[in-house]
Structures are given as structure tokens and as C-alpha cells.
Amino acid sequence: MPRATEQLRDERFARLVSEAAACHRCSMMCDRRPVLSEKNGPTNARILFIGEAPGRHGADQTRVPFSGDQSGRNFARLLASTGLERDRIFITNAVLCNPRKPSGANRRPTAREIANCSDFLRRQIETIDPTIVVTLGRVALAALGRIEYHRFSLREHVGRICHWNGRLLVPLYHPSPQVLISHRTEREQMRDYRAIGRALRSCGEDR
Known about the structure:
- The protein is of the alpha/beta class.
- It has one domain (6-202): 3-Layer(aba) Sandwich (Uracil-DNA Glycosylase, subunit E).
- 42% of the residues lie in helices and 12% in strands.
- It is built from 8 helices and 5 strands; from the N terminus they run H-E-H-H-E-H-E-H-H-E-E-H-H.
- Helix 1 (6-21) packs antiparallel against helix 4 and helix 4 (111-128) packs across helix 5.
């Protein structure tokens, strides 16, 4: 199926941004603003990255996914190792608003919050229509399963090229400081990120 025209994609994306801004499905996040705008990346991107949720000190303030905090800085280094430029990719999250504890600290989004945002994620993927989807962490990989069922796990499929919903899928670890310390070193993650280049080559795309 041919990709939508640029104008049609932009119109669909603008509607999606407006709907997300008006959303009040999550009672604990009604006072938050979703991180979804033209700052996420171009609507004609061939690669779409999905994280967990905006960080309190990062995207929730900068309005740009994976920026302004340590996870964002880690992601920038890992992305640079692939030779990809940020302005050629689209980045979003399984949950568009920042989930936080009463203390103000970041927390993992609940299953209900992920479910509430699932339709927004599905429509972003349909609108951007990427050739390659890259998930960053377990939450993002599981969120894809709500859109189209899969059996992929981060432990078994990290850094591998998988087929999901008519696209190539590359599961990767989240670039948070905690993951780098306890689960996957930066050197290991850079090796994992090479799968993105392999995926590009396999579908005849350049960087």
C-alpha cells in the first residue's frame, strides 16, 4: 500500500495532537500535558522509536522525547553510534504524559495508563507509517502487543530484527541510567543498536 501524501499525514497528525491534548482518560495525569507535537520528529520518518513515558526532568519540560535528562543524553550517544540523525527519526512513548509519584518522582506507568494511551500509539504508527519500529525497554515492547499481539521479549530478542504488523521491529533496552548500571552496559547497547543499521540495509533504506 502506498504511503499517505505528506499533506494527508500532516493533517492526520495535527488531529492526533489535538485529541491527545484534550485527553483526560488518566485520573492521575489530568494536569499533565502530553508530549506529542512536531518536536517528536518528521511525519515522513522511516524509523519510529518508542520509549516508556516522558521523564519529569526531561521531555515533560523540554517537550521533546528523550531530551533534557540523563536518559536523553544516553540516548543521544547511542543514536549517534548508528550514524542516524535525530531530525530523520520520530520518537514517541507508550504513555504520552509523565507518570509520577506523590513525591514528584518518576514512576512506571500503570497497565491502565498504557491501555488508555494505546490508541494514540496505534494511530501514531499508522500515521507515520515507518518501515522500522524500535522499542526502548520492556514497557514499550509490551505496549506494541496491545496493538498487534506478539511473543517477543526483551531478554530473548534484544538487538534482533523481528517482524511485527508488517514492519521490522528492533527491541532495545531503555537508555536510563539504571539500565546502564544494572542490566546493559553502554558498550553492549551500542552493539545492540547496530541492528538498526542491519534493518535499514535489509529493506533497502539508506541512513
